[in-house]
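Hi team,

Filling in the usual template for the complex we talked about on Friday. All components are listed, including any nucleic acid strands or ligand strings, so the model treats them as one assembly.

SUBMITTER: L.P.
PURPOSE: interface mapping
COMPONENTS: two
RESIDUES: 943
SEQUENCES:
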Amino acid sequence: MEGLTLSDAEQKYYSDLFSYCDSESTKKVAAHGRVLELFRAAQLPSDVVHQIMELCGATRLGYFGRSQFYIALKLVAVAQSGFPLRVESINTVKDLPLPRFVASKNDQESRHAASYSSDSENQGSYSGVIPPPPGRGQVKKVSTSHDTVQPRTSADQQEPVSPVVSPQQSPPTSPHTWRKHSRHPSGGNSERPLAGPGPFWSPFGEAQSGSSSGDAVWSGHSPPPPQENWVSFADTPPTSTLLTMHPASVQDQTTVRTVASATTANEIRRQSSSYDDPWKITDEQRQYYVNQFKTIQPDLNGFIPGSAAKEFFTKSKLPILELSHIWELSDFDKDGALTLDEFCAAFHLVVARKNGYDLPEKLPESLMPKLIDLEDSADVGDQPGEVGYSGSPAEAPPSKSPSMPSLNQTWPELNQSSEQWETFSERSSSSQTLTQFDSNIAPADPDTAIVHPVPIRMTPSKIHMQEMELKRTGSDHTNPTSPLLVKTSDLSEENKINSSVKFASGNTVADGYSSSDSFTSDPEQIGNNVTRQRSHSGMSPDNTAPPPPPPRPQPSHSRSSSLDMNRTFSVTTDLCVHTGQQQAGVVAQPPAVPPRPQPSQAPGPVVHRPVDADGLITHTSTSPQQIPEQPNFADFSQFEVFAASNVNEEQDDEAEKHPEVLPVEKASDPASSLRVAKTDSKIEEKTAASAPANVSKGTTPLAPPPKPVRRRLKSEDELRPEVDEHTQKTGVLAAVLASQPSIPRSVGKDKKAIQASIRRNKETNTVLARLNSELQQQLKDVLEERISLEVQLEQLRPFSHL
Amino acid sequence: MAVCVAVIAKENYPLYIRSVPTENELKFHYMVHTSLDVVDEKISAMGKALVDQRELYLGLLYPTEDYKLRRYGYVTNSKVKFVMVVDSSNTALRDNEIRSMFRKLHNSYTDVMCNPFYNPGDRIQSRAFDGMVTSMMIQVC
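RESULT (copied from the run log):
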């Protein structure tokens, strides 16, 4: 059959008639039944009718395919116009009026005719010879003939079409999924040059019958594919939309796109010519898309963010709803950004939509990311109704998976089995985990952040404290804990902790540092302290080799002055005995020297002390490692004893005692002094007898009174557990001091003595320094413990709300 | 099976509401509307703790005399509420199933949000979302 040129009106009319005749939507009209009635209604002589039927080939085929039907109608018109019935008359006779069918169908026809005439303007001019009407007819037929498509059940018709019926069922559903979007308003798609269904028909044809020859290419103007193809189009309105993709239609495309629409049109034209897969992207198209992608995102492997894509596609002037749907289809990984493939798919969909194609429900396979390859011959029935080309209709849905290349297989699975996709996403991104994750993070950090630094600063602060104390030796005596306090204030909570913990840690540190052996726990230390002190005291006499820690007497004075004090108080054993705390004080004493009542007094208590001191010293020598105060003991030198004695002194020393004893030990002194201070209270008790004496001794000869006061304050701050240590240390110091009685305190007595005392003081200094460091460590440890406890407390607090 | 699914925005206006097209759809709408109060109540009750600690799934909102129709609630962190009316006559839906349904809803909603063409606050017209809800209304029986 040669192509039939129909006008728009004719097109509509014929399609309507065809659908009318095709009651069972088989796309084929049996020769009998309504067609016959129709022809009879044409009021043509029966022989003419027969002739018509022959000409159109119905008799040959046994039924009326769409093309046959159209030709027949045309012939009817020809006949009614009085023209001779010839095949060529179909096209040659121009301006044929529409075939008139009298009889009952008049109403229809008249209606149709009217509608057609009115719709004629809607019809775009189709260029060239339109392949058999079926394609064209569809377009208009759809809109107007829906109502005319009556479910006529013609048994007769069914028979011949039965072989085709079954396959037919599926395709109609698929195109219907397309859901004719409002075609009329869509963009400038008013014109649908139906220059032949081209590839789009073919899919349907294929889908429908499966038996039809694969050659459904209209563009080539090949003889209409077996009628099945056409028939299939009859009741598939959406299929007409495919036509728009036809190259011819593209020519008439009036869509305006800021983006070079012409090129897209060309591309589409060419693409449709491939008549494989309407959704396939041709090379030119793809190249164009890629170029467009580059304008937005130079990196081809990068993403186009959603906002940029939105802007870009908004230019196409499609409704937002459609763009939204296109986005849903094309953003495959749902990440809010478009990769190159996704972008090409989206672009292609936009172009398709512009051309009047309805958007598919699901992304066509050829548009799936990574599937957009011309080489990708996975043309096997794409999603039903959309692309189904070669695949049989029944196979359309399942054909995807099996036919898909390995790459593609994942996509259809993901795309089709939304449940899988969703379950995966459910598993992976459960909202619960997200929220819990956040909630978990929040509470812990602040506390830990705040808490952790605390211990870290311990050491520097200690050093700082030492320095402070060094500076303060003579300055701030009123603050027994000033050096410590200053630093504590600096460190806020840290300080408090420091002050308190330092004491403990200091103890531990000192213990650690001290040469004493087995110092593991504070309790032990504490216990040891006492012993240590005693041991120290015991050792003191041994260690008296170093000049008796004369300055000890004034533990409060501590560091800087301590040296001097020590020198001056080389004999200040009594001072040492006093508290033993302020070894520094003892050291500091020498410079002060002046009031050496202590020496006088010292001997007294010292005398008493030695025994105690020894015991203390020995003890302290063992304990110091745990007690920073007792670094002296590590040396088992006089210094330890000295320190112990100093400590003791400090403890006892409420007065100035050892302000300057050990400048170096300032750092440790705070700790030690604290401890000492703590021990003060106890040591005083312990060394009640000697203490007072020591105190007096320590205080008077030694450095500034404030120191002991400070020590006391320190002691208050310090951990109570240190008290024992202090007591021990005081004992030690006492012992140390006691050890010093041998050193004549008499000022100016012997230069040698003084020098010796100086030496001793120096040694004491070092010992005390060591003790100090040990104490600092202890303090640090205790601080850490406190920090951890606070953290626990913080963590427990939120639960109080629940 | 879910007979009604509603997505309520933060300002308590519906972004999406759909019910099984049977009889009294208005009844379902009314149920959703009354459920909002309960949802808000639950949110505020839990809101004392950190927002993150609040669980999204609210569960059965309130017991009704009608044992067949149950309302379940779910709130996202952005105060978008999902209310689902479930017909439990056929099968006793377990809590986990309801949770999974809400999770699917949430994921679909997230996908809708990801669409740059969707303005938050607009009605949800996504076909994918529709499809998902439809599947829920049909499947969960």
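MY TAKE: Strands of chain A lie at 29-30, 63-64, 304-305, 337-338, 580-581. Chain A has a mean pLDDT of 55.

Thanks, L.
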